[in-house]
TrEMBL record:
PANTHER family: BLR5614 PROTEIN-RELATED, CONSERVED INTEGRAL MEMBRANE PROTEIN. SUPFAM superfamilies: Cysteine proteinases. Transmembrane segments: none annotated. Signal peptide: none annotated. Gene3D superfamilies: 3.10.620.30. It holds the Pfam family Transglut_core. This is Transglutaminase.
Length: 195
């Protein structure tokens, strides 16, 4: 398992922002609806399952629409991995659970592309969750003991970045904001993470 490195002060992982916009009533209402009375771990698990299973991955459903802000992803019901990670972060941060952003470089079609996921802090320990959405070749699960992500680097050139960022990568947000379709996002995404 990868040793994770927290890049910012823990309080930064609780902040609302333009894309992690849990100040929206719809985000707050959904977070409260999903919150478990069995404690924080069950709340994280339930919110994770909601984003993974009930919010579609844009490419899986053939959507032509690009979503980014958490409120937009919740409203439209779909997003790319980066958008889904914004929603997961917003829902969990509203519940007072520190949540960050992590990245991988993975093989995509003829080359490489960045993939986004989250890290959550519970009981003083970070663990990664990937709410990309499962399919026949993807089986990400909630686990605090044994990491179970959608993808792992397995071929030369792929990379698992150990850093947990408090905000999404600005280059990715810019590309998403300027792209007309999910396919355009995928074609223009950077290959490697820089910070």
């Amino acid at each position: 398992m990868l040793f994770l490195i927290q890049k910012d002060d823990l309080n930064k992982y609780l902040e609302s922002s333009k894309v992690v916009n849990y100040n929206y009533p719809e985000i707050q209402e959904k977070a409260r609806e999903l919150a478990s009375d069995q404690g924080q771990i069950e709340t994280v698990k339930d919110i994770y399952h909601f984003v993974r299973d009930e919010i579609d991955h844009s490419l899986d459903i053939g959507s032509c629409q690009v979503t980014c802000r958490a409120s937009e992803v919740l409203k439209e019901g779909h997003g790319l991995c980066f958008a889904k990670s914004n929603l997961l972060a917003a829902l969990l941060r509203f519940m007072g659970i520190p949540t960050g952003f992590c990245y991988q470089t993975l093989t995509h079609e003829e080359g490489f592309v960045l993939h986004g996921l989250n890290a959550v802090s519970l009981d003083g320990k970070w663990f990664r969750l990937d709410a990309r959405g499962n399919r026949a070749d993807v089986d990400a699960q909630f686990s605090m003991e044994r990491e179970s992500l959608a993808f792992y680097p397995t071929v030369e050139g792929e990379k698992d970045y150990p850093y947990i960022f408090s905000q999404p990568d600005k280059r990715i947000l810019k590309i998403i904001g300027e792209s007309k379709s999910p396919e355009e996002v995928m074609k223009t995404l950077p290959i490697f993470l820089t910070w």
